[in-house]
Automatic annotation (TrEMBL):
Keyword set, alphabetical order: NADP, Oxidoreductase
Start and end residues of each stretch annotated as Disordered: 1-26
Residue span(s) of domain Enoyl reductase (ER): 14-324
Name recorded for this polypeptide: NAD(P)H-quinone oxidoreductase
Claim: Magnesium is one of the keywords in the record: no
Source species: Roseovarius ramblicola
Keyword match NADP: yes
Length: 327
């Protein structure tokens, strides 16, 4: 195996142009880790935040961006028994995905679903870990409940719509165009709301309010989300595209028994992520293999054109997932 690899690094905090191809040593797997030769890597909003200097890697993680990918295991560290050299996997990564080789805890790997290629599989970990842990874990979504997801045409949104629909929820979504709304409805949303033309608060209130809202917008959406919730409803916050600070009347939270919570995935412990992987393998992978749930693919770029991939993502013109072709 080669001793060096091509990778894309962040040369300084800034815009997409700070991403540069470079040569790095191939990392070695530590105890409990595997080394994956990546074929494809997913592109996600946290990558752009890290590039901008707003989302530092956790201690010990690679400084390279990239939180998910798919490929072939080429080496295993001490104590790894669940995976072998030659296995094809997709994996949640602590960082380092914008490279030809990456290490990650073995427990954060999942098998490539039957019938799925590595390109699609590379798009599963970050969004599916996030949606499963926040919508069904923290948010405790149940069949028959009214569920609203903002950014319905994003990677997170398209995943949340499909999974919530598959588990029997009534799904609502917001998106910024008629075309994006149509995608949301094809995926299982009973009502997609063009936020440029309609008020999601009024739409949800007419339905009795949302039992659960998944939001990555923040800003002035926070008080509007509270208004859109049904009594005893839950709001799960996973990002703040419009900022984390806003004035909010917490009397409504008390009087209507609302729950406001949230999480970020990357800083959580390896053990927590391993438990999420177990849940996905048990409850979600059978849905993928049955063809009931699949990643929505937007576009692909060569690894060396990661800057163009970031420009595409930050334009918000994309629908679904953007991937980097590594191999």
């Amino acid at each position: 195996m080669t001793e060096t690899m091509t990778a894309v690094e962040i040369t300084a905090p800034g815009g997409p142009d700070v991403l540069r191809a470079t040569t790095r040593p191939v990392p070695e797997p530590g105890a409990g880790e595997v080394l994956i030769r990546l074929a494809w890597a997913g592109v996600n909003r946290p990558d752009a935040l890290q590039r901008a200097g707003m989302y530092a890697p956790p201690p010990g993680a690679s400084d390279l961006p990239g939180l998910e990918g798919a490929g072939e295991i080429v080496a295993v560290g001490a104590g790894v028994s669940d995976w072998s050299v030659g296995d094809h996997v997709c994996a949640l990564l602590p960082g380092g995905g914008y490279a030809q080789y990456v290490t990650t805890p073995a427990a954060h790997c999942l098998p490539v679903p039957a019938g799925m290629d590595l390109r699609e599989a590379a798009c599963l970990p970050e969004t599916f870990f996030t949606v499963w842990s926040n919508v069904f874990g923290r948010g405790a979504l149940r069949g028959g409940e009214r569920f609203l997801v903002h950014g319905g045409s994003s990677g997170i949104g398209t995943t949340a719509i499909q999974l919530a629909h598959a588990f029997g929820a009534r799904v609502f979504a917001t998106a910024g165009s008629a075309e994006k709304c149509a995608v949301c409805e094809r995926l299982g949303a009973e009502r997609a709301i063009n936020y440029r033309e309609e008020d999601f608060v009024e739409v949800l209130k007419a339905e009795g309010g949302a039992d659960l809202i998944l939001d990555m917008v923040g800003g002035d959406y926070l008080p509007r989300n509270v208004k859109a919730l049904a009594d005893d409803g839950r709001l799960v916050q996973i990002a703040f595209l419009q900022g984390p600070k806003v004035e909010l009347n917490f009397a409504q939270v008390m009087m209507r028994r609302l729950t406001i919570t949230g999480s970020t995935l990357r800083p959580q412990s390896d053990l927590v992520k391993a438990h999420i992987a177990e849940g996905l393998r048990t409850h979600v992978w059978p849905l993928i293999e049955a063809g009931r749930v699949a990643p929505v693919m937007d576009s692909e770029f060569p690894l060396e054109q990661a800057a163009a991939a970031h420009q595409r993502m930050e334009s918000s013109a994309h629908v679904g997932k953007i991937v980097l072709r590594v191999a």
